């Protein structure tokens, strides 16, 4: 093989290798890193909604129709976003396992979504009925925080 053929062959392999690395990086980014980042943002949104609507969630006397409607919508939206984002990540169970505890398991995310939907059913209650559910609300919020590995607000 002549020197020129060796140079052309080396250049072709270098270009092909570079393209392969670039395409692999793009695939990992689009199918793994970006969706995982979106899931972390959805988990952050749950934290925001639990903090922002805490007065409506935990204090029945602070509830008005408008505040309750906004809290209800936010909690349901967070629940749906968690489910959508976790299902957008291929092989999420494996990704969660290798994340060394940084990402909750798919089961925990599903449980948190269920708890958020359940929590949303309480935000329109007032008077004695609302007062009787305060402890259940507190437990649901604690479960959501535990499942999503969020620090309690207290």
Task: Walk me through what this model shows.
The protein starts with a helix and ends in a 7-residue tail after the last helix. The model has no long low-confidence stretch (mean pLDDT 94). The protein has one domain (35-147). Helix content is 78%, strand content 0%. The chain is rod-shaped, with a radius of gyration of 23 Å. It has helices at residues 3-52, 54-58, 65-87, 92-98, 106-120, 127-132, 134-147. With 154 residues, it is mostly helical. The chain is built from 7 helices and no strands.
Topology (elements, then pairings):
Elements: H1 3-52, H2 54-58, H3 65-87, H4 92-98, H5 106-120, H6 127-132, H7 134-147
Radius of gyration: 23 Å
- Major sheet summary line: none
Principal-axes geometry comes out as rod-shaped
Count all strands and give the number.
0
Unreliable parts: none
Descriptive keywords:
78% helix, 154 residues, 0% strand, transmembrane, single chain, mainly alpha, transmembrane helix
Can I get a quick summary?
78% of the residues lie in helices and 0% in strands. The protein is an all-alpha fold. It has one domain.
